């Protein structure tokens, strides 16, 4: 049997590491889907890079504001046309339904097909609609000048 060289060990280590990280990510996503609770999140920013796009969502947990890109939303070769269209239809400043698990506060699973428009529901999850309306009006008037 041939002796393995350092490069072979390095390659084997990388394969095992990436496999572990992938399995960990899948387990976290499944845990959130199974044991998570529904929350309302606000889509705040979309940042495009040459080969990827980050989607920023804000939400409140225990009166603390979190902003994350770990939303489960990404352009992927395996997305159906319907999923890709739902991602393209995301609007900045709009509220969506998401799943959250207290164990992983920076990871959520956003459902881009479920917009939340009920202000009572939005306020129940920590957002202040009066303040949001003021910010929206400021943005609207600053764009018209």
Give a brief outline of the structure:
Keywords: Membrane, Transmembrane, Transmembrane helix. With 145 residues, the protein is of the alpha+beta class.
- The amount of helix comes to 40-55%
Radius of gyration: 20 Å
The stretches of 5 or more residues where confidence is low (pLDDT under 50) are: none
Largest sheet: 5 strands, antiparallel
Number of domains: 2
**Overall number of strands:** 5
Overall residue-averaged pLDDT value:
83
Class by helix and strand content?
Answer: alpha+beta
Strand order of the largest sheet: 3-2-1-4-5
Number of helices: 4
> Tell me, what's the shape?
elongated
Keywords: Membrane, Transmembrane, Transmembrane helix
Transmembrane segments: 6-23
């Amino acid at each position: 049997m041939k002796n393995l060289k350092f490069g072979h060990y390095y390659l084997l280590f990388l394969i095992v590491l990436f496999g572990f990280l992938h399995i960990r990510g899948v387990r976290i996503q499944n845990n959130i889907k199974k044991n998570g609770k529904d929350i309302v999140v606000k889509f705040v920013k979309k940042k495009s890079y040459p080969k990827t796009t980050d989607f920023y969502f804000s939400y409140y947990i225990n009166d603390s504001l979190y902003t994350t890109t770990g939303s489960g939303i990404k352009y992927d070769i395996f997305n159906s046309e319907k999923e890709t269209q739902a991602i393209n239809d995301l609007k900045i400043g709009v509220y969506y339904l998401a799943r959250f698990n207290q164990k992983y506060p920076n990871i959520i699973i956003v459902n881009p097909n479920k917009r939340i428009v009920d202000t009572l529901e939005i306020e129940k999850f920590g957002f202040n609609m009066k303040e949001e309306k003021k910010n929206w009006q400021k943005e609207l008037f600053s764009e018209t000048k």
